[in-house]
User: Fold this.
Amino acid sequence: MAQGLTILGLESSCDDTAAAVVRRDGAGDAEILSNVVIRQDDLHSAFGGVVPEIAARAHAEKIDLAVEQALAEAGVTLTACDAIAVTAGPGLIGGVLAGVMCAKGLSAATGLPLVGVNHLAGHALTPRLTDGATFPYLMLLVSGGHCQFLRVDGPDAFTRLGGTIDDAPGEAFDKTARLLGLPQPGGPSVEAAAAQGKTSVPLPRPLLDRPGLDMSFSGLKTALLRARDAVVAEHGGLPRDRRADICASFQAAMTEVLAEKSRRALHAHPDVTAFAVAGGVAANRSLRAALTELAGGANLPFLAPPLALCTDNAAMIAWAGAELFAGGRRDNLTLAARPRWPLDGDAAPMLGSGKRGAKA
Ligand code: AMP
Ligand code: MG
Assistant:
């Protein structure tokens, strides 16, 4: 039987400075020994989005602390680890560099091997960490910076089946909140308002009339802006109940588009063993309910990792590193930080880019 592995993981590609220690036993089962996330929300909240320079500086200041804390909580020393896994992209380059430089320093000091991990692979492999998912499975990654369908056939075998051609869903939730005067992050505040409203505002279902799995959310945002302006013109302001109606209608449009595209993806890949989601938007209860029903209808388990492992974290990076390391992957001090790094090199390049930087 293969040997067990203990992997230190580092993540700093957006606005969370994270370090974790994960064990993968000889049978391939996982145990998270620690999972430290130092959030930066307070640093960025005044700007209505992540400011790359502020994020990079905060990562550089906090990444050592996160590593120390992750090792202490796991009760392991650095030299007891088998390798250091680090997010090497895609993401905000200053942040990615902070993590990669830290990992290189630790590797140079200890002689431990490095494994550069694609951040999206971290998300995409999380169902194996949390639920022991078996290949192949289908994943919908929906976050503040990404939206794509992936077919996962192995730790380094991803096929991008389609995705957004402009905004990511989380970005659309955040912009909706901003347009309606609701607090950030927009997802939870729009969801809470939606619970009080009716789906009475007509909003488009972009690209549903076209075949395939590509999606678009920027038109939805424009339609929402018009709906808001119409309410303001009528009432001389935005009454709370009408705002709730706009939120409910927006969430319904979003859910319908994501669910219908998911249905098509599952239909086109009848051999998958599970349907999984990851990313912050997967926290949305309306979306979860729709996707759970869809997977049930296809007789597949619906795998939604706990929220702390859906959003950015280093346990997923350590785990992806463990899977790659077990398969023989080794990087060295020439490891490059990459702002763009498509998971599926064969897929057509994506259009557009969002507030969280370039889409991969
Ligand atoms: P991530 O990019 O994975 O860190 O996730 C953050 C994004 O998820 C932000 O854009 C949030 O607005 C969004 N989000 C968080 N909770 C929810 C929710 N309940 N409904 C919709 N979007 C959400
Ligand atoms: Mg992410």
Summary: The domain at 137-305 is CATH 3.30.420.40 (Nucleotidyltransferase; domain 5).
